[in-house]
Amino acid sequence: MKLRNIILFAVVALLVSSCDFLDKMPDDQKTMDMVWKNRKETEAYLYSVYSQLPIEHSIWGDAPWVGASDECDMIWERYCTASMNVGNWGPNNLEWDQWGNYYKAIRASFVFENNVDLCEELTAELKKQYKAEVKFLRGFYYWKLLQQYGPFVLIDKEEPMDSDWNSFPRTPYDDCVSYIIRMLDEAYPDLPFSWQVDRTWLGKPDKVACLAVKSEVTLMAASPQWNGNKAYASFKNNDGTPLVNTTYSEQKWKDAATAAKAVITAAENSSEVRIALYRNDENGDGTFNPYKSVRNVHLEKWNCEVLWAVTKCDANGFEKHACPRPGGWNGMAPTQRLVDAFYMANGYTIDDEEGGYVEEGFADEAHSNWLNDNVNEIRDGNSWGHRKGEWNMYANREARFYASILYNGHPVLQVAAADRDIYSSEKNKDGWGRVELYGSGVSGANGVSDHSATGYLVNKFIHYDSNPYRGQYYGWRQHTYIRLAGIYLNYIEALNEYDPNNSDIKRYWDKIRERAGLPSIFDTHPEIKGNTELQAEYIIRERQVELCFEADRYFTTRRRLLSGKTDTKHTPDRRMYGDNGNMYGMNVFAGDSFESTEFYQRTVFERRVFEDKMYLYPISQDEIDRNNSLVQNPGW
């Protein structure tokens, strides 16, 4: 086995492990000296710096971002999303508290950088690369702290363990951003352009990852939460130092656009490796299929759209939670709000008369892309859409809808033909395995603790070769933090704020919609062109759809200050934003057949609580008690 393959195995093993390597690494000099004597020990310490990378769109890792956003609900009260959504959380009862974990990894990055030159078994070239890796990781961990908690305590060197931590206050937000950018810039020269060129070390950062993370950081810094937000005027350290500059700066949007465009330019000019939106016809198929394209971008390993990802991914855990019973745990439930956000097949919203949306009744005809009633063709993605006789609410929707949402009466696509009837009641055993989410159905709510609270299940990320009944899941694939579609959305969002008529807005927005099989937004909604407010509304909606369940929605609604807003354009059961108040799904306790119309009624499944203090995650009270110079986030 090649040495680098052995190293890759070590990366995977350490990243998947739940053990904290740092807890096992004493700081006494004798023990530390041993670490740098040989390559194996030195690289083991390097991989400990990777060990705190979060898995953010799977509740198996307990990250709350999907279930605590307005796009999804988790039925299980044992997960932190349950208490967050009803407002029963705070500094004294945090379950997803990454503050200490990220700082452990940050400290380890300094220790590694300061000592790796002592290892005589590493080449000078590898030492440069490894130093660049830990600088990237340091910047990334600080970015995650900034995203979750706001201004952090900036530690920019290896501090003695017995330091007086009471002398380390929080650092102003803009300075935090500058330091993260500096780390990414310093890491950039000594990393390869893309590990796609040499796939042995996929999962490590590269130049493209540096540019991609910079785009994420600058976009958040430009957003209303941090750009001119007067609500943070009194957010100060104990000595009176303001932690947020409350003066609006258009330049921050320009910086965000520049950062995103740098990624796009690198992708478009690359001669080393192909970086592009994933399309099935450019990856093995002869004919373009929007459904297979938007489905497989999340299923094909290390495809051309992936910009920054790691090998640490529990796809099995995600599929177990999302797949219908029997065999799955059946509780990751998309909200009605997300279902409503998807476009019609002709590119209009469900609120547009031209869209042809019908709320009631059953479809007289199948979707235009439902080509035949062959189970294998459906499973393989060649035939997709709604079937004749399904509820009209789900008829004639766009490809991303069918790739993301499993609704009542639709076949469970991942199951082998021989097992399909297991998902059906006796009266429905017809070889199709249509998911029964109505009250008395096999996957319904009556008498079952693990059920969908909304009448929907997540279809996105579920591999077509999985078979939940047999406990057969597709298994390993990368966990993607950033993909090219997200960068396109970053770019057009930033451009819109200072140059809403820029032609690049249409150019890159069209690419996303074309891949989804939709016409240009400016063909269906020409009235928004050049209007910053209207374009922003539709750009945010495009993010909601394109990046659903990817841990984007939680942070987008917060950085755009939408979580506490009241939607005055729509009725309460059709509102598009606001994380407080009634949340809707279907009437999951009703119905005894697919034809039970009482099931298909918009029904409140939860009344959620959102207060302005929840725009930021609180810092644990234990951390506040340990450092008397550390101020708590506003409102907590």
TrEMBL record:
UniProt subcellular location: Cell outer membrane
GO cellular component labels: cell outer membrane
Annotated ranges, domain SusD-like N-terminal: 20-219
Signal peptide: 1-22
InterPro entries: SusD-like_N, SusD_RagB_dom, TPR-like_helical_dom_sf
Taxonomy, superkingdom: Bacteria
Predominant location category: membrane
Keywords: Cell outer membrane, Membrane, Signal
PROSITE patterns, alphabetized: PROKAR_LIPOPROTEIN
Keyword Signal on entry: yes
Boundaries of every RagB/SusD domain copy: 325-636
Classification via Gene3D superfamilies: 1.25.40.390
Record-stated family: Belongs to the SusD family.
Identification of the protein by name: SusD family protein
